[in-house]
Amino acid sequence: MCEKHWYVVHTYSGYENRVKTNLEKRVESMEMQDKIFRVIVPTEKKIEAKEGQKKTTTRKVFPGYILVEMILTDDSWYVVRNTPGVTGFVGPGSKPIPLSEAEVNQIMKQMGMTEPKPKIDFEVSEQVRVIDGPFKNFVGTIEEILGERGKLKVMISMFGRETPVELDFYQVERFS
Fold first, then answer.
1. Which CATH number characterizes residue 83's domain?
2. Do 64 and 91 fall within a single domain?
3. Among 30, 91, 135, 144, which is disulfide-ready with 153 (CB 3.0 to 4.6 Å)?
4. What's this model's pTM, rounded to 2 decimal places?
5. For 82-101, how does the pLDDT look when each residue is reduced to its tens digit (9 = 90+)?
């Protein structure tokens, strides 16, 4: 009995979700559930700040590719390879190469098995204006970017003194 592994399948760019749906339907109609287990379009969530609002967007990590967890046999290869929108497996020649466990774990982690990563659109020493919260309308200078937490340390002048304030990315905008 062969082991199940993850394989990377090349698709037409922009058709990843359609290929995923088509492949899942083919697996069901051709009764391949015992050989083809999961089909994933690798995506990740990003938190962006637009006009003072927090917005979570999803983007494809590998446009033009999907991941398929399967036991590679001639039959399972045929089902995947002949799904509309699939251009082939990733690997030299016609032999698909499975992803290593470390590669799969990295992709799964990147896909949001962890918290969404904020999109960092700021630089240290850049001037920003606070647009939300108790310091609204104050102008300050970015002292530090705490990217993993989605926060900035901003130096704001209060009562004639520079005071460090920790703010979320969506609470500030560039000051020009």
1. 3.30.70.940
2. yes
3. 144
4. 0.61
5. 999 999 998 887 778 999 88
